[in-house]
Write a structure and sequence with these properties.
- There is one protein chain.
- This protein is mostly beta strands.
- The chain is about 10% helix and about 45% strand.
- Strand 4 and strand 5 form a beta hairpin.
């Protein structure tokens, strides 16, 4: 075989590295689907973000932020979705609000200090970023409760899919 025929074969092996596929995100370091149901008054979940080696990078979670009305069970009108990065000075929080809470000035005033307000919508996505981490929360399913309170003011059920990634390291200069 002539020496020149080996060069093209070597060139063909180089262009693609299977772990780098444009447009295909890395799998998350941590991913959970959580469901709140009316009556779960202690709904407050958190999950660690760790490298496969076990190194702790941070934590994320979702919890009841605000209730509306009186009596049991508590009627949740907003949830807090948060992301903690061990290498950042502050925890980032977004408030996932019912339609009523999102539009009511008094509730807005109570919720805004907790984090940016986001209207809960089916299929809606929230992204939170810290120095080294990124969290995406997606509303998989939601259902408002009914009764004496204003329409679309509290959740009967809410399912979120939460996924956390380590941000890509900046390219070396």
């Amino acid at each position: 075989t002539p020496a020149g025929t080996h060069a093209p074969a070597a060139v063909l092996e180089i262009p693609e590295r299977p772990e780098v596929r444009p447009g295909v995100p890395e799998p998350p370091l941590s991913q959970h689907r959580v469901t709140y149901k009316l009556g779960d008054d202690a709904f407050d979940l958190s999950f660690p973000i760790e490298l496969p080696s076990g190194e702790f990078l941070g934590e994320y979670g979702v919890a009841i932020s605000e209730t509306i009305g009186v009596g049991d069970p508590a009627k949740v009108t907003a949830f807090e979705v948060w992301l903690f990065d061990k290498n950042d000075i502050k925890t980032v929080t977004r408030v996932l609000a019912s339609e009523h809470a999102y539009r009511d000035p008094a509730l807005q005033a109570r919720l805004r200090p907790k984090g940016d307000l986001v209207l809960a919508t089916p299929g809606g996505r929230i992204e939170l970023e810290t120095r080294d981490l990124r969290l995406e929360a997606r509303v998989v399913e939601m259902e408002y409760g009914t009764g004496a309170l204003p329409p679309n003011s509290f959740f009967n059920r809410l399912t979120l899919e939460l996924a956390a990634w380590r941000k890509a390291a900046p390219p070396e200069a």
